[in-house]
Fold these 4 entries.
Entry 1:
Amino acid sequence: MRDVASTDRNAVPARTGCESCGLWRVCFPGLVASAAEQRLNGMRLRRIRVPGGKTLYRSGDRVESFYMIRSGCIKELDDSHSRDGAVINFALPGEMLSLQCLGPAVSNTRTVAVEASSLCVVPWDAFSELGTRSPQVAAEFVRLIARSGLAARELLTLIRDREAIERVSGFLLNVSARLQSRGVRGREFRLAMNRDDIANYLGLRSETVSRCFTELARRNLIRVRAKRVQILNSPELRKVSLNA
Amino acid sequence: MRDVASTDRNAVPARTGCESCGLWRVCFPGLVASAAEQRLNGMRLRRIRVPGGKTLYRSGDRVESFYMIRSGCIKELDDSHSRDGAVINFALPGEMLSLQCLGPAVSNTRTVAVEASSLCVVPWDAFSELGTRSPQVAAEFVRLIARSGLAARELLTLIRDREAIERVSGFLLNVSARLQSRGVRGREFRLAMNRDDIANYLGLRSETVSRCFTELARRNLIRVRAKRVQILNSPELRKVSLNA
DNA sequence: CGTTGAGTTGATGGAACTCAAATAGCGTGG
DNA sequence: CCACGCTATTTGAGTTCCATCAACTCAACG
């Protein structure tokens, strides 16, 4: 139950095991509670592979499962205002999708694979049953759902009242920290998304994002070559992101 | 259990009853389930009054209760980046506070009364107990918590990639709709917050907010005099807010 | 009637957008 | 392996929008 056969052509961001997965703390109490039938197998765990550019689910769809990113990158889009969708969040390896749908059950976002991605799929009812048996698990749920709403708030403070270079610096540090916390090297990584997606996410234009990358490289804070990014001076980069 | 003695000097936005309160759908199943001890009285419901400018709770505080706004206006501030706090949300009459804290229990926002406000205070444990007894109530909880994260997302789409006049128009429509949905007249109302708070919320400067008000008034879409706002042409105002 | 604070209006500069052109990556097929 | 073509990205020049700073209005209040 650890690794899956890989069919990747290009270098894909690291594959993560269950320990680094956001659901681990939910699974764990369940597994402790009763070893046999609450194993991952018993929960009808599935793995799926989504090709880059393909839609996972749409706004309005009834979503009945959690999704955990194992590799790749999924973007969540809000279609309510702009025609081609505004990026709300990039879900990175080890992170979760669709949590906020499980109250209303129907999704308010469209999710699209930024690149070929591998996901774990866990039916909601399996977990919900787990929650009714263990208040510990139920509490963990509430915590996770509450935390899932935090991404939007973080993005809000990342872009509101901040100028372009601050946003881009903050974005890089954010991605770096999230990769690091999942056990992936955060100093040097590959951005799965293109400049347009980043610009859309940060409320900028791709040209501006590009200029900021160039400027940060000129200051020797980062190194960029297309999608590959290397963070050379993260304390200084943080200062830039905080306008300090 | 309906009205409280009023000590307001100036005209304060309408006081709302339990029916228009965001918690009603949570209370209701509980009340149905067992009439006697789960009444509002049984839940140790308290009413408090917060003077304008006073802090309700701070970031880092352990929050053990829900708060429901009965009258007035409470702003939620994020202190993580700016010195004097960035406005995340304005809680209007009939709306709730501190829901997202009840997973982590410790608040990540500071809440300050924009004007003298009256609140209902309900201890979390009373509800949590209610939830363990009724899965219906528990589900309603999850729904409410998931929805509480939506405010940040809405604000995000309100300001990202939108110019000043679009933000201001969207803000007015948003406030209008929220007042209306709580049974208050939404065509003509009084903004509790000053220009600085609005500007902070929208990621603008107070001068810009002022200019936008003036411009919208010039186009005969609204009428403004200090804090009093009248919406004259909401379809057209919507067009402006959507950049259409 | 002067003071105070919120709100409005005006003038100016800078940051980011726009449009346009140049360049770099990258997959494809010779 | 290299040339080709396509797309993504970078760079440049001009324009727009908003922040800034400052002056001004207005109402409340002693």
Entry 2:
Amino acid sequence: MSKDSTKNVVPTLADVARAAGVSSATVSRVLNQPSLVHENTFQVVMQKVRELGYHPNFGARALASKRTHTIGIIIPSLDNYYYVKCLSAIEESLKDLRISVLVATSNYNSVIERNQVDRLISRGAEGILCFRDTIHADTDDTVISKTTPLITIGSRACRGAMSMIGFNNRQAMAELALYAVAMGHKNIAYITAHLNKNTFLFERLEGVQDALGHSGISPSELRLYETHSTFDGGSDSFEKLMADDPTTTLVICSNDILAVGVATKALSMKYSIPADLSITGFYDLDIARVIEPKLTTVMVPIAQMGRRAAMAMVDFIVNNTMPTGSVLLETRLCIRGTLAPPKQVECV
Amino acid sequence: MSKDSTKNVVPTLADVARAAGVSSATVSRVLNQPSLVHENTFQVVMQKVRELGYHPNFGARALASKRTHTIGIIIPSLDNYYYVKCLSAIEESLKDLRISVLVATSNYNSVIERNQVDRLISRGAEGILCFRDTIHADTDDTVISKTTPLITIGSRACRGAMSMIGFNNRQAMAELALYAVAMGHKNIAYITAHLNKNTFLFERLEGVQDALGHSGISPSELRLYETHSTFDGGSDSFEKLMADDPTTTLVICSNDILAVGVATKALSMKYSIPADLSITGFYDLDIARVIEPKLTTVMVPIAQMGRRAAMAMVDFIVNNTMPTGSVLLETRLCIRGTLAPPKQVECV
DNA sequence: ATGAAAGCGCTAACAA
DNA sequence: TTGTTAGCGCTTTCAT
């Protein structure tokens, strides 16, 4: 085989140009700025592109243009419906704008999270979306590229030039807890996903404590259970907390997944919900309406947060507008069947 | 500012090399083949890397090495737990091997799917994972790069050099349906996700029909409902099918999500499960055990499929072994509370 | 509307 | 063990 004849390898721009009898600059224009090219030329070139099965080389394109049109997202776990729902909204917002999403997971670990930032940047991410704020606490900010914006979703505002799209975790949880506690519950347990160093989880805990305080219950009386954010985590914690104190009448959970786990286990242990036991969740995921009775929870605008975060990234990639500041979105109480006053209210 | 002094831009390999007093080749080795470099040199260079906040330029690296260490995955929807569960297993298998995952969605649309293949290849994907087999039916294979392997997950074997990791959809569904029908159900409805051109969904339908045939029921008596693969899709279809024929005693669903939607709606309509109504699903997702009674379904080794598919990609990327042939994994019946014989068995 | 040519930042021979 | 150097395939001025 001669070197110059049709090679049995991946075709390049030059190959297309040669086949179409134009320069490679013209082929590049056809692909990137078709309006600058004559209609006929366009057709001829596109024909050859199809014929040869040409695909632009991503590396070369990125190197020459200094653009990757890629963002990275660091998600604690793909097994957690909350994060995935947000990821879905992000991907949905970005796909038509031809911006790709590189997915990295952290397993709720802030060290891994920090490494993923570097990795994503090395992978060409022009911006990074992230769900936890431990990155900022744990790291020397100076190492984080100043040219790669990092936006935190659903957590609290961060220091530095970082931006945030979220909601008031403390207040949202306090509202829900206050509503529940005001029904007369005295013996309360709180199941939270592992706190680690996540401020947003601490804020929810503070929200619960705020509610207790307002209701004249000492926050120190709150029984706290930390666990994995899974159905089983909820179920296991419920067994444990009921073994610790069978008179518990209200179980507040830091998210719906835990709450559904609690409800499932409680039902199988023949507790009647909400007669024997009230349960609350957080987020208002689809599964909140799958269990019977349906779960009382807080609606968090997950998809909207994802869209806002995505838009901020688009604005950066397209207009070079560095995202800044923080946005707090509204949450809403969803009072449903799993919440009721405790059965035996003691007469004073 | 002079041109040569510390520039306020992204540092390059050459910048690190200059700062460390070595050649850029040495810096490259430190980063890619540290074993070839003297320990002292390694330390000095790494120190400068950190100091400057250097991140390798992905485009340049990809261009020079002809490697991206990236695979693409085309997923019908990130809102469907089944696909996400598999994605999770894939990501998990790949993260430690430093292979990145580019996520693209198709919205169950084979045209979009086909476009995503091109897009992912242009994005540098060295291989592509995909959940549907319509791509192969709809397309001129010659346009799909021969150098980029495409593996189908969970669907049937495809033609050409493409590879597949899946299971026998028809047989798995037939086993479940046969078990259910053998209990004496005569009036049966089947709710399926939109068939479109997906062979695997047709295969499940055939499985149901096989079971009816074996039980002496004419397959034409099966009432078929196509809907979106969501809880609401299941709920809505259930309302419809009960309006069409209130004597239905068994609802077979093409997946657990639909089945849970059916169960939720049935419960809220005061049907007693399984006394009035039996329900079956497919996949054995977490949510199968969340509803009460728990869902009868088929366990599909989703995570295992993801891992196998990921491993095949690793083998291609690392050893240049083109994936080929197809793998069929085992499924297992999960008989749980939503299935029972129909209440009024007519005496013959 | 099109072409020529200079890099983009890195890797991988090859030399030393 | 380290340095020199020639590209990788594309975009993008600058000409024409």
Entry 3:
Amino acid sequence: MKPGKRILVVDDEQAMRRLLRASLEPEGYQVLEAASAEAGIREAASQRPELVVLDLGLPDGGGEAVLKRIREWSQVPVLILTVQDADEDKVRLLDLGADDYLTKPFSVPELLARLRVLERHANAGAAEPLLRCGDLEIDLAAHQVKRLGQEIKLTSTEYDFLKVLARHAGKVVTQRQILKEVWGPNSVEHTHYLRIYAAQLRKKLEADPSNPKHILTEPGVGYRLRG
Amino acid sequence: MKPGKRILVVDDEQAMRRLLRASLEPEGYQVLEAASAEAGIREAASQRPELVVLDLGLPDGGGEAVLKRIREWSQVPVLILTVQDADEDKVRLLDLGADDYLTKPFSVPELLARLRVLERHANAGAAEPLLRCGDLEIDLAAHQVKRLGQEIKLTSTEYDFLKVLARHAGKVVTQRQILKEVWGPNSVEHTHYLRIYAAQLRKKLEADPSNPKHILTEPGVGYRLRG
DNA sequence: GCTTTTTTTTACGTTTTCTTTACGCGCCTT
DNA sequence: AAGGCGCGTAAAGAAAACGTAAAAAAAAGC
């Protein structure tokens, strides 16, 4: 028999964590707990659970940030729990990458059934969040970039730029898309930003910045990270 | 523009079908309707929709049977609609293979968001569209062309030219159409562009550029990409 | 409040790509 | 057989896109 799937419960209320543990463990799940948004992100990144149950009502920054951060590198199924019942919230969260949404109070059997549905779906692409490109390691989960095992310090804009490329590693990302994702939809015309930050990234993580092996230019189209 | 995803609505109430059609068509879905369980099964089998919205409150045998029958041969995402709110029902339906469950009255934006989630899951495992023409591979998503597995560098215009031919692989594309799609409607007279770029493409992706096997000339008409 | 870091602005040299121009070949018509 | 026509090839000039450096402005850290 396999060891049960690991499921991460992110909730600040101890009572809720206890209830979930009591409900999930008899079903064969191995329950991991996190009591804050920060801890949730950390656990998700380090433990790589097969499922996540996320309470929106977290005190420190809210669960929404957790979902966003997880979705930067992982496709793990996330079920949202919440007390409120606002429509716009549901829609926004689902579009942000949440896979299901339950309002408290919920029925435990329904929760279990919905988790089974998520498990059924989960067999899809389990992408390795640690990207290796030659001498380069990009860990989207840990927000860390290494070259030859040594950590490289990137500014936040540089990291965002690299992140966009890494998420579509091997594929061309259009200038428009990069600008939109890094600088926002209002800056899609400032294509010179791309040249400047491409140069800065190459200076930091290419062996020979004038002969880039990783960050490749596709003239007239965009940039591409060699995978 | 692609034709929208086809979505099958199974519901005996005409008012509900009308509401769903009115909500879904503006989103780009192509709506198929069935007013009974029997019709639902028949439509699902013959039309193979990409999504199914199924009302449980059907008179003839109930929607449960529809779900069971569909699951015998298809993994199409099914979203259940129902008036009742009994826990055991939800659990049973979800375990029977339903992918989501909404109770009436429901909010249309939430329905749409949940349908988007189901679409996301359905597309997760699907490989990207790869156009194959003999030893040639054209990956439209990655903006990349390979020959015998080896990447070929194309300029933006060369790529556009090839893309037009590839979209109608095997068929003749007229000079007019190529010029219009690559250089815009104002350049339909510059037929010499075609000769230049056809030559460049042949130089890059034919084994013997003077004996083209892929990019064939149809004298007086246009060009054709052999499949 | 000042220093340090990061982002944005500005400017210019270089490379790549696109367009223009020119010429050779084969074929059909006259 | 000469000349027009459509196609293929080559190479030059024009234009666009890219890379780099450095200063000004803004933000972050102490």
Entry 4:
Amino acid sequence: MTGKVDTRQAILDRAAELLQERGFNAFSYKDISTHLGIKNAAVHYHFPTKSDLGAALMRRYRERFDAWVAELEVRHANDPVKRLDGYLSVPLSYLRNGRKVCPIGVVEAEFDTIPEAMRDETRAFDARSRAWLAEVLEEGRASGIFRFDGSAADKALLITAALQGALQVARAGGVRLFFVALRQIKRDLGVAASVPTG
Amino acid sequence: MTGKVDTRQAILDRAAELLQERGFNAFSYKDISTHLGIKNAAVHYHFPTKSDLGAALMRRYRERFDAWVAELEVRHANDPVKRLDGYLSVPLSYLRNGRKVCPIGVVEAEFDTIPEAMRDETRAFDARSRAWLAEVLEEGRASGIFRFDGSAADKALLITAALQGALQVARAGGVRLFFVALRQIKRDLGVAASVPTG
DNA sequence: GTCTATAACGTGATAGAC
DNA sequence: GTCTATCACGTTATAGAC
């Protein structure tokens, strides 16, 4: 009802963009405040330290992922291909929205330099995301839709690592490389590429 | 003959460690100079700007890779499995030597914040590395040793992206995850894991 | 909840002596 | 080739007015 948007959320929105575009160490409170038309100190009011900001940011990623999963389960509860495509559409949206990379990947690349609270939230998000994909893969294999050797957990790890890496590689080598990786992932699962490939 | 080691090389050695441990933006000239027991200004003598340092660093990675390939070709010219294992031993050494990540991955994560000269060298290194792996995969498939669908270039891209991502994931989730990814990569190629798996 | 003002610090970089 | 000394700047963070 108020024309005013929630500043706290707006800060996190901008921080998320900056994280995935530049990394945690390469953006500042001023980058955020300028973008919102406020001052440096106002951001500190909402997040006293950068550690607070970073941890809240990763926590929100995880919460949103959980909400996204819950919604997807309702719509495509019994369709492994649709669930997989839903999962793959996340990094795809990162790529299309300014060649952003996976937040987990950036944070892990800077892991030894970021606040401990942020690392904890990252671990939680990472494990959650991988576990859900493993579930999808297992069901798809049981249905005879996916084909792969080894455990679903192992295969899920490989796929998430590849997606994370492919988003990064696309920065240096061009977006086409991400689509190639995506296609190969599906090929290796024995399914045709149904997500746009370029 | 002189007891003195080449300072320029020592700087690059330390910079390489710091890059793979902390990222390009999170280390300083002082981190390097202190480690070598010299002063900040001495480092600037060898590399006037950080851009110079970063570009020289990535160039050296590529040159060393080329030399490494040349040596490996002599020893294992006709053994795709040994050549693949050689390739996989590189990220493995990163992992074991202090949970370092792939230099290409870190740089790509920070891509929009690093000097253009450094980006150019990164692109060159990345393309070189992937092209060589594709060659190995193609020969291995022709010999009936590897099994995979799609082009060797596509498969090479997927594998390099996965290795890059897996090194990062191992930071948050533990080194075991890298070995799991490694095993799955080989499984998907239809070969048994011959590199230590944990 | 946002502002002004400022503190305290680390950074990349340079000048000039040795 | 390395040193001392210093500069200009950006950063996180805080105090206190409004």
